[in-house]
Amino acid sequence: MTPRPTPSGPDVASLRRPARVRLAWLLAVLAVLALVMLASVAFGSRVVGWADITAALGGADETLDQAAVIKRLPRTVLAVLVGAALALSGTVMQGVTRNPLADPGILGVNMGAMLAIAVAMVTVGLSTATQYIWVAIAGAAISTLFVYGVGSLGRGGATPLKIALAGAATSAALASLVVAVVLPRGDIAENFQSWQVGGVGGAGWESIVQVLPFLAGGLAVCLLCARALNSLALGDELAAGLGERVALVRGVAALGAVVLCGAATAVAGPIAFVGLIVPHMCRLLVGLDHRWLLPFVTLAGAALLTAADVVGRVVNRPDEIEAGIITALIGAPFFISIVRRQKVREL
C-alpha cells in the first residue's frame, strides 16, 4: 500500500516539543524580562541604587534618584507594551502569509501608519494620542492590503519573495511621501522627525492608558487565532479540509496584527525588525506551535525592546540613542542572514 504523503508545513517534532521544555524557556524569558525592566528603571543618565528604586516604587520622590525612577517607569511600561505588540504582530503576519520575512517594518505597515499620521497632522491638526491611534491603524490596514495586492499579481500568486519586494518598494515610496508632506510644514517637522526615528523616550501614563485598549484587543484577537494559524501552516487545502474557514481566519488574524502594529506605531514611532527577529529566535526554542509561540514572542518582544532602550541610554550617556536605531542595527544583519540561509522559502 502506498504511504500517504506528508503535507508541507511544520514538522511533527517541532509541534510536539515537550511541554516541560517550552515551560522552562517561557519562565526563562519571563525572568529576562523582569531583569531588563529593573535595568530600565536603574540605568540612564544617572545610575540609581536598589534602595532608591524600592523607595520610589513605594511612592517616595524626595531625591533626584527617586524622581528619576518615577520618570522612567512609564517609559519602561511603554517599551514592554510596544515590544510585545510588534513581536506578536510580526509573528501573526508570518503565520498568515507563510512568509519568513514578514515584519511590520519590512512590509511597509509601519510606513503606512506613519504617512497616515503625517497627512492627518497637516490637514486636520491631530492633537491627541487616541486620534493618532485610529489614523495609524487605518493607514497600516491600507498599506497592508496594498502590499499584499501587489505581491499577489502575476504568476504564482503571493509568494514570499514578491511580498517582500512589494513591501520594500512600498516602504521606500511611503517614506518619500512622508518627507514631501512634512518638510514644507516647519511647525510640525521637528516634532515629527523625532517621533519618526522610533523610540519610547516621550512616554507618559496618559498615552499608555489611551493605547492600552487597542493593544489588549489586538492581543486577544491574535491569541484566539493561534490554533487556526497552526492549521494554515499545513497549507490552505488541508486547513480547509480540517474545517477552517481560511479566508476568514486570515482576515481576522491580519486585523489583530494591524491593530497591534498601528497602535504601537502611533505611540512610539516606526520601530523596525522586532517583529522579524523575535519570531525566528523563539521558534528555535519552543517550536512552531502557535499556541505556545504567540505567548512566548509576546514576552520576548517586550524584553528585546526594553533592552534596546536601556542600551541606547547607556552607550551614549548623557545623551540617548533611540531604541528604533538599536533594533535596526541588530535587525539588518539578521534580515540578511535569513535571506541567505532560507532563500525566502515559505514557512
Name the descriptors.
347 residues, mainly alpha, ABC transporter involved in vitamin B12 uptake, BtuC, disordered N terminus, ABC_transptr_permease_BtuC, transmembrane helix, Iron ABC transporter permease
Structure in words:
- The chain crosses the membrane at residues 23-43, 73-93, 105-126, 132-151, 163-183, 203-226, 247-272, 292-311, 323-340.
- One of its GO terms (molecular function) is transmembrane transporter activity.
- This protein is 74% helix and 0% strand.
- The chain contains 15 helices and no strands.
- The radius of gyration is 21 Å and the shape is globular.
- Mean pLDDT is 84; it is low at 1-14.
Which runs of at least 5 residues are low in confidence (pLDDT < 50)? 1-14
- Number-wise, the strands total 0
User: What is the H/E string?
Assistant: HHHHHHHHHHHHHHH
Q: Percentage of helical residues?
A: over 70%
Shape descriptor: globular
CATH architecture: Orthogonal Bundle
- How far the N terminus sits from the C terminus, by CA atoms, comes to 30 Å
Q: How big is the Rg?
A: 21 Å
Question: What is the SS-derived class?
Answer: mainly alpha
| CATH H-level superfamily | ABC transporter involved in vitamin B12 uptake, BtuC
Enumerate how many helices there are, as a single number: 15
Largest sheet: none
- Average per-residue pLDDT, rounded, comes to 84
Instruction: Quickly name the level 1 CATH class.
Output: Mainly Alpha
Which percent band covers the strand fraction?
under 5%
The CATH topology annotation reads as: ABC transporter involved in vitamin B12 uptake, BtuC
